[in-house]
Design brief:
The protein is of the alpha+beta class and 631 residues long. It has five domains: 139 residues, Beta-Lactamase, CATH 3.30.450; 110 residues, PAS domain (Beta-Lactamase); 73 residues, no CATH class; 73 residues; 154 residues, Heat Shock Protein 90 (2-Layer Sandwich). The chain is 43% helix and 27% strand. The longest helix is centred in the middle third of the chain and has 57 residues. It starts with 5 loop residues before the first helix and ends with a strand.
Length: 631
């Protein structure tokens, strides 16, 4: 500022001051002394914030001015301000307008700002008025901070660049800096479909010279959500009576707009429902007299509409429960009635359900009530028919339970009867096999092996049926003791060696030494492993591979029995462990089986507090059965 003649500056502006890059005052002319009542000596060298405190700049105006100063610093472009209010120490209210200019050094870098006051007005304020004003401003600031109303100041240029906007613009997703930085202007807030209409309305107002106006339009949030707002603004003019700035507020009225639209839609729907509803609908006033009804209520009550209108819902009704339901409305509660209603005017008896609701105005006055009445004759008849059907179904179910018990008893008896001769067949066949009764020819040995294999298979089937019978009756008993899983697997492979050799299967054993014992029932676990290995042998083509793996985990021994057999479609795996489940009839005919093996396995694993599941990548991709048994 050195070397710039005061006389020249004073001839250009009514007031001028400047701060350096650190916001310290370096210039304050006589015009500013006159406008603010503050001496140059008191200001030079002080911080800008100190000047604002002395000038009693209000919080809203202070924020506005600071935003403008930051914008000038960031953009290195001048900015205009309007109607900033200062309260001087002498009690003068000074309303100022002017420009803020950036100062740039030789390196084209920001070095401070120059602020001019181009116009101002002032008035003397008495001490009491001055104190009241400060108090009022404080109250207004507190109210404003908690208000949904957004305040703004923008210039009367194309689409209205914003110089100030209040912090609660955040309710629309924006920050004040989005606008005061120049990135957005007021026109960017307005919905594109409404922008031209707003422009036309504003141009009309400017042309007519009106100062105050109000309009409603749609606004876009930062996330492009549509909101309705109402704007109320003051148009300010410059000294030449040209539009200069807009100072106003807007508030979100989306809920009101939606409510208005919903009300119109609701009225249409209500009228349609009222006239076309299959239910009977009636309105009655605060004296309980019916004022409106639809045609269906006439059918239900069995009397003409002109006799329904005017009927009193309390005096003209004999049914005590119906009266109580209607009286509830006059206590501002809902009422409900269900029963066989006899109309006192027609004598018609109809099973009905009626719900009554109070009709309350916006100001809280009880206007009467609304009744929704339904003829439930068909429902009553259906309920009676359903009750009869339920009784018949219960009787049939009891008969089925009896047949189920007979079936289980039959299975148990037949299984026991089969087991005795099977034991003899198996025992004598083993004697023959051992040639205790004489030497055998090769052909006789082949036949004897077939008999022994099928006797063993039949024995497992009988034992499966017996197990199922005991499960159904709850008589399965387990004997838990320290048991070696490795030993059970080895014994199973040995017992099924004939079938394994006959199918020419390659058996891989991957069982670590020194596996810990588990607490289990050795016989039941042997049955379980036998069932799974037997399935693998049955469904694996000649020359396939059967792999037996045991992995020691933290809490379990994990057994994996994997084959290279025909596999299982993935969507059928969840049904594998159900009783009597088989994938399809074609497989049953080709491979045999009862569908009990995996069901029995699951029962045994569950009794041991373990887990069992199957995996298969699909048909002809083999199957894995996984078993986890607690250590």
């Amino acid at each position: 500022m050195k070397g710039l003649p005061d006389k020249l500056l004073n001839s250009l502006y009514k007031g001028i001051w400047a701060v350096d890059i650190n916001n310290k005052f370096i210039y304050f002319n006589e015009g500013m002394e006159e406008i603010t009542g503050l001496s140059r000596n008191k200001i030079i060298g002080k911080d800008l914030k100190y000047f604002m405190e002395l000038a009693q700049l209000s919080v809203g105006d202070e924020g506005h001015f600071r935003e403008l100063a930051v914008r000038v610093k960031d953009t290195l472009k001048p900015s205009r301000y309007h109607s900033l209010q200062f309260l001087t120490p002498e009690g003068k209210l000074s309303i100022q307008s002017g420009h803020i200019f950036p100062m740039i050094n030789r390196d084209d870098k920001y070095s401070g700002i120059i602020c001019t006051v181009e116009s101002f007005s002032e008035q003397k304020i008495r001490e009491k008025t001055f104190k009241d004003m400060l108090s009022s401003k404080k109250k207004l600031e507190d109210i404003y901070k908690n208000s949904p109303v957004v305040a703004f100041l923008c210039t009367a240029e194309k689409d209205w660049p914003i110089e100030f906007i209040s912090d609660n613009i955040s309710q629309f997703g924006y920050t004040p800096e989005d606008f005061t930085s120049g990135r957005l202007i007021f026109g960017d807030l307005i919905h594109p479909d409404d922008l031209d209409l707003v422009r036309m309305d504003v141009s009309k107002l400017e042309g007519e010279g009106k100062q105050f106006f109000s309009m409603e339009y749609r606004m876009l949030t930062k996330s492009s959500e549509i909101r309705w707002v109402v704007e109320r603004s003051l148009l300010g003019f410059d000294e030449e009576k040209r539009p200069s700035y807009y100072q106003g507020i807007f508030i979100d009225i989306t809920e009101r707009k939606l409510a208005e639209e919903a009300l119109l839609e609701s009225e249409k729907k209500y009228r349609f429902i009222f006239e076309n509803s299959p239910l009977g609908i009636l309105n009655f006033d605060d004296n309980a007299n019916i004022s409106h009804c639809n045609d269906n209520i006439v059918k239900i009550m069995g009397i003409p509409k002109d006799r329904v209108i005017g009927m009193n819902m309390i005096r003209d009704i004999d049914d005590r429960e119906m009266k109580e339901a209607v009286k509830a409305i006059f206590s501002r509660k809902s009422g409900h009635y269900e029963g066989k209603y006899r109309n006192p005017l027609s004598g018609k008896v109809t099973p009905i359900k009626a719900d009554y609701s109070p009709n309350i105005s916006d100001d809280g006055k009880l206007l009467g009530g609304v009744g929704i009445v339904e003829d439930i004759t068909a429902r009553i008849e259906a309920e009676e028919a359903l009750k009869k059907y339920a009784e018949e179904l219960a009787a049939a179910n009891e008969e089925l339970k009896t047949l189920d018990r007979m079936k289980d008893q039959f299975l148990s008896n037949v299984s026991h009867e089969l087991k005795t001769p099977l034991t003899s067949i198996k025992g004598y066949t083993e004697l023959i096999s051992e040639e205790s009764l004489g030497p055998l020819t090769d052909k006789q040995k082949e036949v004897e092996t077939t008999v022994l294999r099928n006797a063993e298979r039949l024995k497992r089937l009988v034992e499966s049926l017996l197990f199922i019978s005991r499960v159904q009756s709850g008589n399965v008993k387990y004997v838990f003791e320290p048991t070696s899983i490795a030993e059970i697997i080895d014994m199973t492979l040995l017992d099924l060696k004939i079938q394994i050799d006959q199918n020419k299967l390659n058996v891989k054993r991957r069982i670590p030494d020194n596996l810990p014992l588990i607490n289990g029932d050795k016989d039941k676990l042997t049955d379980m492993i036998t069932n799974i290995v037997d399935n693998s042998i049955k469904f694996t083509p000649e020359g396939g591979t059967l792999t037996c793996t045991v992995i020691e985990e933290e809490e379990y021994l994990h057994i994996i029995l994997k084959d290279t057999g025909i596999g299982i479609p993935p969507d059928l795996i969840p049904m594998l462990f159900q009783r009597f489940y088989q994938i399809d009839a074609t497989r049953t005919r080709k491979y045999g089986g009862t569908g009990l093996g995996l069901y029995i396995c699951k029962e045994i694993v569950t009794a041991h507090k373990g887990k069992v599941w199957a995996k298969s990548e699909g048909e002809n991709k083999g199957t894995e059965i996984h078993i986890q048994l607690p250590k």
